[in-house]
Amino acid sequence: MNLNNNNRYTFHAVQFLLMLITACSFCAKSSTLPPDFPQEQAVKDAQALLNHGVRTVMDKVLTPPSGDKHDWVTQAPYWWPDRAHPFGPYIRQDGKRNPEIDRWTDDKYFTDMLRTTEALSQGYVATQDEMYAKRVAEILRSWFIDEATKMNPNLDYGQFVPGRSQGRGEGIISTRFIYKVPQIIHRIETSKSWTDQDRVAMQAWFEAYYEWLTTSRIGVEETHHVNNHQTWYLVQKVSLEIELNRLDLAKKTLYFVLNQVVPAQIKTSGLQPKELERTKSFSYSSMNLNAFWVLAYLGKSIGVDFMSNPNGQLLFKATDALLPYDDLSHWPYRQISSGAEKDFCRPLYWVQLFSSDSKYQDAQVRFACPNTVESYFIKNGL
């Protein structure tokens, strides 16, 4: 795969790390690895998932309206039957999750696929053991390449609402972590298990999905939500533009984020008004902030420095605005679900890539954020 002046997701850093790795024993720590590299945990996590069976869109029980199980489908989580009109359109109850959505499993299987391939790819970075890369390649082929099992590159039936819509822009939020797929691929780039044919086929899938994301009615609809939906949409857009080597487009999108999206969503106080309107205001503030830090990371990989822009500094203010609330009983806004403190962990990991201020490390302890292999890769921009 063509790398453009070491601009891809700072994967040059991963490649450098790989060069340092020798053929170490299965669990022994190699002296050539950075001293703080969590090799033992990386191997443990990868080994635990090596034989894990990953399901695809074809494994769902129910069929989307198209009649094609290759099509992704999810049901909107906060929409319920109207008691006053039992056979009428569903009505929205923000933050209250309808258990009916569990009948549709594509997003669950997608999350499981990412969790598994991420751990296995990190295991490959730690050991260069081909068995991990081989399994990553098998799983990615099943999701994106193999004709019998792959997902069609669209979300036409994402977050459908019974009686109202077969699919909505809001459904795009379910694939917000798709930016990790290029990361995972680049980690196994040196492996013989990931072939030129795989690279070409994967790029073709990304091309088709990007086309759908940026031109379809549903894709365009998602850009109009000035909240976490818009931010995560832009994460997907930028990550694909970088992966498809459309760096001028990626930079244009990132400057749009800096100049328009950030100041529209984050006030000088650091608060995010659109997220504070929600019944899970701390959760959604954390979720949106996570997306902004991912965009800053993507910008860093292609020379767009968020931190040198005054609007980029609002990301620090938004992080600092949430820092005092490791005890959410003091949070002055509505938060109807418990355990939301953990939602702040990923922003706390990301901020440490851009700041060495000890208050963020201290907050990671206060919020009981675990030191995982994923958090290591985030904090080191890998």
How do the helices and strands line up, and which of them pair or pack?
Elements: H1 11-20, H2 39-49, E1 73-75, E2 79-80, E3 91-92, H3 106-127, H4 130-144, E4 157-160, H5 180-187, H6 196-215, H7 217-222, H8 228-243, H9 247-265, H10 273-276, H11 281-301, H12 314-322, H13 345-354, H14 358-366, H15 373-379
Parallel strand pairs: 1-4
Antiparallel strand pairs: 2-3
Nutshell version of this structure?
The protein is mainly α. The protein has helices at residues 11-20, 39-49, 106-127, 130-144, 180-187, 196-215, 217-222, 228-243, 247-265, 273-276, 281-301, 314-322, 345-354, 358-366, 373-379; strands at residues 73-75, 79-80, 91-92, 157-160.
Task: Describe the fold and architecture.
With 382 residues, the protein is mainly α. It folds into 2 domains: 161 residues, Chondroitin AC/alginate lyase (Glycosyltransferase, Alpha/alpha barrel); 160 residues, Glycosyltransferase, CATH 1.50.10. Helix 3 packs parallel to helix 5, helix 11 runs antiparallel to helix 12 and helix 13 runs antiparallel to helix 14. The longest helix is centred in the first third of the chain and has 22 residues. It is globular. About 6% of the residues have low confidence.
